[in-house]
Amino acid sequence: MEKVNKIIKKLGYKPNVFARNLALNKTHTFAVLLPKKEDLDYWKTTLEGIKKAEKELSVFGLKIKYYFHNYSVKSFNLQAAKIIKDKPLAVLFAPLDTESTLEFIAKCKKAPISYALIDSNISNQTPVTYVGQDAFRSGHLAGKLCGYSKSKKILVVKIAPELENNAVLKQRTEGFYSYYKENKLSMDIEELNFNTPESVRLNKYLSNEKNNSIHAVFVPNSRAHIVAQHLKKNNLKIRLIGYDLISKNIEFLKADFIDFLINQKPEQQGYIGINALYRKLILKDNVNEINYMPIEIIVKENVEYSLG
Predict the structure, then answer these.
(1) Topology of the domain covering 2-132+265-292
(2) Is the overall model pTM greater than 0.70, yes or no?
(3) What is the pLDDT of residues 113-127, one digit of tens each?
């Protein structure tokens, strides 16, 4: 044994955990908790990345069980409770609101169940990894893009269920306002908040003559296309900034009704998150505690090079 250990140390040998798991036919179960909304292509893309990682690692014993909530705190907590009861090795999830997320994390630690976060981070916590953008900085960038407009009136349109509980929208909006505060810019910023993709109020507001002074609109999630529809309907040319390369957004970007999209790479977030959990928990590798996605600005001229 002594001779063998000397040889192992000299050669730097490391066991092939992939091969060992394959030989032992050992299964490792992860959980995934995500929103499920038919009109939210962002999460469908995230799911594609997760399933891609699952397919690649399934031969080495990885199994993923999926849990979906309807974007409400009640539904999130219900699914979180099911995960705690099922006791997977780890869970990958996107925070909904800070309070529910912290409660879930506390229960994971007690179980114990390792966890990783995607889409938005929660400060002062210790996930295996966080994969996503710096939401505050991306909002700050959006503020800068809006600030290039000559007009001093900017409209912030939030369209999401459970708005008051949406952690990432809050972080982006705080970053957005911070740009003007840091640069001591006096801007007239108005907010419109919708819990559903409402059209009547938004269309009435944008078509109103008194709002012709608005030259920039910021939508801090993937629903910029909803605003773009009304800009097109009312033949309005207003600078529009939003998030994510979903099909509807790309359509309006190419038609010049969306000026800038901030790309979060949701498919990569899901893929990297699952791989990081597997590497850390199964392979015992070191992984980055924070995997920041680049804050990419996509315009009509470069969108084709950013797809795929």
Answers:
(1) Rossmann fold (3.40.50)
(2) yes
(3) 999 999 999 989 999
Q: In what order do the strands lie in the sheet with 114-118?
A: 62-69, 28-35, 90-93, 114-118, 130-132, 290-292
Q: Could you count the other beta carbons within 10 Å of the beta carbon of residue 301?
A: 7
In Å, how far are 60, 122, 283, 285 from 26, measured between CA atoms? 8, 33, 13, 18
pLDDT tens by residue, 88-114? 999 999 998 889 999 999 999 999 999
> What digits encode the pLDDT tens for the residues 207-243?
775 566 788 999 999 999 999 998 898 888 889 999 9
Whether residue 85 has pLDDT greater than 90: yes
Residue carrying structure tokens 């084709």:
304
How long is the chain? 308
The arrangement of strands across the sheet holding 296-298 comes to 188-194, 153-159, 216-218, 239-243, 260-263, 296-298
CATH number of 135-263, picked from 3.50.90.10, 3.40.50.970, 3.40.50.2300, 3.40.50.720? 3.40.50.2300
Mean pLDDT over 173-197 rounds to 88
Q: Tell me which amino acid residue 288 is.
A: N
